[in-house]
Specification:
This protein is 29% helix and 24% strand. Helix 11 crosses helix 12. The two termini are 54 Å apart.
Length: 796
């Protein structure tokens, strides 16, 4: 690794440039390769019948009439899947990295995840679960035939909320877990924490719910399956967050060797975590393609996506803070309950959030209970900054409330308790080890670019126009690790190109540009000469895909390790051409040269010359790396929000954020990531919510008419600054830049709105902070009934 670190250091002059994205021309001119863009001769079309019930026993799936209709090739249900021996999807919800907090079942036992078969044969466990598949020659024929399939259900009691699932006598989603609790794990030191609470001068406690949202990627879920009997191979076209992983999982479902499955995942129109795990439709189109001898294609409607995409968030937490009379934090208690839905697809939100429950603050001791429960809802998955916005919301709301209840200045209370630079690396009270950061400096910078000192004048101006102006602030720290293994294969071709094959694949993050910048810097070749190859499992043999902010850190580490080996091979090739020895060849300023020769070559020229002379060996290296050390991006956000007290309308007037991403490869791309992350977080804080009807269990958000989204006209221009405090865990010091914008957004928006409403006596409000909720809170406060939840406080 020392050679890699030296190479990385040499390359820093070429890193950090705002290079325009190479991929944008292709994508903006209609030359992208999204799943629905692919067609295969003779393809057929699949349509799915989905459960209208939250919980029901499947008595019968009768496709007799549908099978007689024109163009229909097959009608399939769960019993057909069982008859053909299809296995459940092997979801592995517990992270495999070494330093993640390890969640367990109750009593420390194994975790029952609820097997996800491609189609259920016994029960449905959420509205929208696929129950039957119709395949026909055309899509209209498949849609018509689906209307003729008769499915008989016996409705069962259901439960949709975490609180309901934990209630005595609640309906069991799975007979194997009668109390619906699949995870129950304690972290921290309960005894020391209890003593700290007993000796504290003040205790403030809050109950909070961070609601459920969905990712609504611009590209709806799609899949195209093909089976070749001549080679006994399956091919799937499907946008995903990791083709290699999905290949292995689909092979397990089909009961074949991994070599018999090829997954193609090229351009992906949005992921945010919702595409990281295999969907049942992926396996079903492959299975049906073999049964029917024809390719099978499926594209979800937007309504289907709302019903059946994996969803995000949904955490109930009770947090309590113990502190001294001077404001010094002593201890934290937390009880976090994650709603995993009808099956456990991922525990990343609960686990990653648990590790950061104390946030950016030095809290000497903490005790945390982390639980996960089944409910009759769509499974939840990792969703942008998985688990971190939830716990950041909890700790930052708790600090704001503490300041207001006890009369502290909220900024000074934070300043007194922030983790200091001199404390890094810092081990928090539940076992996470923060790598680096300057948290107080971030807060000062965010306040400065937000013109914090100018706020009083702006508030007076707003009041003159009958409006209420509020100012919010939230610090954040998040973690980035993801799947630990990654591989790169770098080849300098005789055509004068550098081909880079890697397992982590883009979902819109600009990898074709930023990855090329790193390789360009290390090998001194033009960015435009580098071709990135991803998403084809016949070419990409290993890799963890894109999630958890892992991509740039893993890729740059691999490239830094590969460069010395590639340059060493280049010296050997150059030595043969220059008729000298490899130790006489130097690679300086991007060129191979020897003392007794007047010829020199850059990397591209050397590959071309070697090919012309017929020299064997070439310039190619394969590099593997396994990375378990997490990194901890961090920062601070400041939000200004104006409230119309007559209508409850909220307008965000200013928004500033500082993100410490470690080494920044391309600031233009990182700024874009920050902007997108902010929009997603603000969307959840103000408009987005997956609502379940409490009397029927029916989802009430099935289109954009029902589900509010952030748009360009309801967000201001952002003031964004990048801070580079390097991480000691990897050669370039990279942390991550894709999730920081989202992590503090829930907290800072609600903080700003409550600051605006504080003069009216509004003390709390639940997300999303829609105009109706704000208006209702104002009316309740004016009527003297208070608004929202009243925090609990006590003084010893």
């Amino acid at each position: 690794m020392n050679d890699a670190i030296d190479i990385a250091a040499m390359a820093l002059g070429a890193i950090g440039q705002p290079v325009r994205r190479k991929e944008d021309r292709r994508l903006l001119t209609g030359n992208g390769r999204f799943t629905d863009d692919f067609s295969i001769a003779g393809q057929t079309y699949a349509v799915f019948l989905r459960s209208p019930h939250a919980h029901a026993r499947i008595l019968q799936v009768d496709g007799t009439q549908a099978k007689r209709m024109p163009g229909v090739l097959g009608v399939f249900g769960g019993r057909d899947c069982l008859a053909d021996g299809l296995a459940p999807i092997p979801h592995s919800p517990v992270p495999s990295t070494r330093y993640d907090l390890k969640l367990t079942g109750p009593g420390g036992g194994a975790i029952f995840i609820g097997p996800q078969t491609l189609l259920p044969a016994d029960k449905v466990r959420n509205v929208g679960e696929a129950v039957a598949m119709v395949v026909a020659e055309t899509l209209p024929q498949a849609l018509d035939a689906a209307e003729a399939v008769e499915i008989e259900y016996e409705q069962l009691p259901w439960v949709a909320s975490s609180e309901g699932a934990l209630s005595p006598g609640a309906p069991a989603v799975w007979d194997e877990v009668s109390d619906n609790v699949l995870v129950d794990t304690m972290f921290g030191n309960k005894e020391v924490t209890d003593r700290a609470f007993a000796s504290a001068d003040h205790v403030i406690a809050m109950d909070l719910h961070i609601g459920r949202v969905t990712g609504v990627p611009i590209e709806p879920r799609a899949a195209l399956g093909h089976y070749d009997p001549a080679t006994d191979r399956y091919t799937l076209y499907a946008g995903s967050g990791g083709a290699v992983r999905q290949k292995a999982e689909l092979a397990a479902v089909l009961g074949v060797a991994p070599e018999q499955v090829r997954v193609l995942s090229f351009d992906v129109g949005g992921n945010f975590g919702v595409r990281n795990r295999v969907y049942v439709e992926f396996g079903l189109v492959l299975w049906a393609a073999r049964k029917l001898g024809r390719p099978v294609k499926y594209t979800a409607t937007r309504c289907e996506s709302f019903l059946s995409d994996f969803q995000g968030r949904d955490l109930v937490t009770r947090v309590a803070l113990a502190l001294r009379s001077d404001g010094r934090f002593l201890a934290l208690r937390a009880d976090n309950v994650s709603n995993v839905g009808g099956r456990c697809v991922s525990l990343s939100p609960l686990g990653k959030g648990s590790a950061l429950v104390t946030g950016s603050y030095h809290i000497p001791t903490a005790s945390l209970r982390s639980r996960a429960v089944f409910t009759n809802t769509m499974p939840t998955n990792a969703y942008r900054s998985s688990g971190r916005p939830e716990v950041t919301f909890a700790i930052e709301r708790l600090i704001d409330t503490t300041a207001r209840e006890l009369g502290f200045d909220r900024v000074e209370l934070r300043r007194k308790n922030l983790i200091g630079r001199q404390m890094m690396p810092y081990g928090n009270a539940v076992g996470a080890r923060y790598d680096s950061g300057e948290y107080e400096a971030n807060m000062d910078l965010a306040m400065r670019i937000a013109d914090w000192d100018g706020f009083p004048a702006r508030r007076r101006e707003a009041e003159a126009h009958g409006k209420l102006l509020g100012l919010g602030l939230a610090n954040y720290v998040e973690s980035s690790i993801g799947a630990p293994r990654e591989r790169s294969e770098i080849t300098v071709t005789p055509a004068g190109r550098v081909e880079v094959v890697i397992g982590t694949q883009p979902n819109g993050q600009g990898h074709e540009t930023s990855f090329a910048q790193v390789v360009s810097a290390l090998l001194a070749v033009p960015v435009d000469s580098i071709d990135l190859v991803t998403g084809d499992t016949d070419l990409v043999s290993l890799g963890g895909g894109s999630h958890s902010g892992r991509s740039m850190r893993h890729a740059a580490t691999l490239f830094a390790k590969a460069a010395p080996e590639l340059i060493a091979k280049g010296k050997e090739v150059a030595a043969r051409i220059l008729e000298t020895t490899a130790d006489e060849v130097a690679f300086t300023d991007g060129r191979f040269a020897a003392p007794r020769s007047n010829r020199s070559f850059d990397v591209l020229e050397l590959a071309q010359e070697a090919a012309r002379l017929g020299l064997e060996g070439g310039l190619a290296v394969v590099t593997d790396n396994e990375m378990h050390d997490p990194v901890f991006p961090n920062g601070c956000a400041v939000c200004e929000a104006e409230v119309d007290p007559e209508t409850g309308w909220v307008e965000i007037t200013r928004y500033a954020v500082v993100d410490d991403v470690g080494r920044c490869i391309n600031p233009m791309i990182v700024h874009g990531q920050s902007h997108g992350g902010i929009a997603q977080g603000v969307g959840q804080a103000m408009w987005e919510e997956c609502v379940i009807d409490p009397t029927s269990g029916q989802p009430l958000c099935g289109s954009f008419l029902d589900y509010g989204m952030p748009r360009s006209d309801n967000l201001p221009s952002f003031a964004v600054e990048i801070v580079e405090v390097l991480s000691p865990t990897n050669p370039f010091g990279i942390k991550a830049g894709g999730e920081g914008g989202c992590t503090p957004a829930l907290a800072v928006v609600v903080s700003a709105i409550l600051d605006a409403l504080a003069p009216l006596g509004v003390r709390d409000i639940t997300m999303p902070t829609t105009p109706f909720k704000v208006w209702q809170a104002i009316r309740e406060a004016k009527a003297g009934s208070g608004a929202g939840q009243v925090p609990q406080s006590s003084t010893n």
